[in-house]
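Researcher: Sequence recovery benchmark, item below. Answer with residues only.
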């Protein structure tokens, strides 16, 4: 056997091993075909740590590609409610971990929506609405439940007008709905009123939008602004003023997520 032939044989063996290793590695990042017929990334939420591990858990959540990430548990069950959480601008994800884990005790179809925050909120909303409408047309769900935080709160508010007459409940959490200096300067498709506040498309009466506002002076994202960007006149079903503290600590921009998600399922926090 010539040296060249032996070398070629060794290279073929190495290539084969690498190929099988790559395939096996891909199995550790499973995808799931949802009821919409589309393929989505699936993540076992029980694998996300809490306490001292919550920062790394948040990064694990945020490192997924743009689109819907299904959050599964061992006790997965069928549910008629489609639940989607939408993160904020430059989120590190940790603010969602505890609240989402608590939601899995009440809902069986929970997704986390990843997006590119360099895009404008109305554009992101169109993508989200396409995903939601695709699910709803499958007939598997009877209601939509959205939670949008900060920039994600703007996204879900724009999404509201894209959902037609689907029975929908939208929670807008600590979101600068009236606009935010410099952040939206490149978004030329957005409309503003005479007071330089954003104008949102009208949504159907079947869409219930609830705004949860943090205390302006307590919110690290807004307290340096002279005017609270959460203040806007929209046909909300309810406006809830959040308390300044949660469990004895400052309730700021990020921990507002835990407060609202837990409040929704009846898990109380003290002031």
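Model:
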């Amino acid at each position: 056997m010539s040296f060249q032939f032996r070398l070629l044989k060794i290279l073929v063996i190495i290539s084969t091993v690498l190929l099988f290793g790559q395939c096996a590695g891909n199995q550790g990042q499973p995808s799931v075909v949802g009821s919409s017929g589309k393929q989505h990334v699936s993540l076992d939420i029980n694998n996300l740590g809490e306490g001292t591990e919550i920062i790394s858990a948040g990064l694990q959540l945020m490192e997924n590609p743009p689109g819907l990430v299904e959050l599964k548990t061992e006790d997965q069950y069928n549910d008629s409610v489609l639940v989607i959480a939408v993160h904020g601008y430059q989120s590190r994800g940790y603010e969602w971990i505890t609240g989402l884990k608590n939601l899995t005790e009440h809902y069986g179809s929970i997704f986390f929506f990843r997006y590119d925050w360099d895009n404008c909120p109305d554009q992101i909303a169109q993508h989200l609405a396409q995903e939601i409408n695709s699910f709803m047309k499958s007939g598997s769900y009877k209601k939509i439940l959205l939670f949008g935080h900060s920039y994600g709160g703007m996204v879900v508010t724009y999404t509201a007008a894209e959902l037609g007459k689907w029975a929908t409940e939208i929670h807008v959490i600590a979101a600068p709905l009236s606009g935010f200096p410099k952040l939206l300067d490149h978004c030329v498709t957005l409309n503003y009123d005479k007071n330089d506040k954003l104008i949102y498309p009208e949504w159907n009466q079947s869409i219930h939008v609830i705004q949860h506002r943090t205390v302006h002076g307590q919110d690290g994202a807004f307290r340096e602004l002279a005017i609270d960007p959460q203040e806007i006149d929209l046909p909300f079903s309810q406006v809830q003023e959040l308390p300044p503290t949660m469990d004895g600590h400052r309730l700021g921009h990020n921990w507002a997520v835990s407060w609202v998600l837990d409040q929704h399922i009846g898990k109380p926090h003290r002031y």
